[in-house]
Amino acid sequence: MHDAEADGREDVSELTAQLLAAKADAADLKDKWLRLNAEFDNFRKRTAKERLELIQFAGENALKNLLPVLDDMERAIANNGKTEEIQVVREGFHLIQNKLLHVLGSQGVKPMADAKGQPFDTDRHEAITKAPAPTNDLKGKVIEVAENGYTLHDKVIRSPRWSSANRGGDHPSAVRQTRNRT
Hints:
By secondary structure, the protein is α+β, with helices and mostly antiparallel strands. The chain has 4 helices and 6 strands; from the N terminus they run αααββββββα.
């Protein structure tokens, strides 16, 4: 009988030891889980903050590159009042325009090709007016540029706006439909 009692105590001691080891493992796993969960939460907050900063300051470099163009424009305006030669004023504006186009080009912005005289394409152009064609060969074609179109890395960011010549039977409502498309 003594042996059965001793075996029972050994089993209880062994089970107690296993229980304590299991509790220690569970506490260790819970601690690891809590730390991992806190680490993931910090990662989520940090990436959300970085994403917000990226969006907020995405155009910073482009805007910094535009500031010298603004400075040139301010100098030109100040000097235009001091000069009587219109040619000097025109040359100054052309220089500033070229500098602006260079800055935009360095950011991937390019003007679209001039479509004057080309067939009007509703997928690439926006009609702002329709006018009678001065000649028959200009019917349905772009006759006047109102605003140039621009692409950013080959994606149209602003469609060119043109005046196109009426074809026979074109109705002014076609202009409104084209304008409402964008």
